[in-house]
Amino acid sequence: MPHVPILTTEELKARLDTGEETILIYVHNKADFDAGHIPGSIWVPMEELRTGASEVIPHMDSYVVVYCENDRCDEPIISAQILTQMGYENVHHYSGGMEDWIAAGLPAENDK
User: Fold this and answer.
1) Per-residue b or e along 48-57, where b marks 16 or more CB atoms closer than 10 Å to that residue's CB
2) Which of 46, 69, 81, 96 is at 20 to 30 A from 37, Cα to Cα?
3) pLDDT tens track of the chain, all 112 residues?
4) Could you tell me the pTM of the whole model?
């Protein structure tokens, strides 16, 4: 099984602060995504990654971060494995999810 780097809140924020292209993918349910997500994120449910990844990830070496609501959901881990098995080379898992992001006082956007 390929190794997928895990990002802390600080590491993710530092990456986003650089302005470098980062594809943030929320892989949990749509209701939670709509309630709040990291600005710039897109919603792609884990079940649709195999068919939908190429539409949202332009290059196999794009910097991709998958996450969900908190560190108790398995979707990001499984999603990261799916993407690496598909050949994506730069996939990361933000394990803290929205709970840690909000707890750190960082901005969220919602689609409600």
Assistant:
1) ebeeebeeeb
2) 81
3) 568 999 999 999 999 999 999 999 999 999 999 999 999 999 999 999 999 999 999 999 999 999 999 988 899 999 999 999 999 999 999 999 999 999 999 999 997 6
4) 0.95
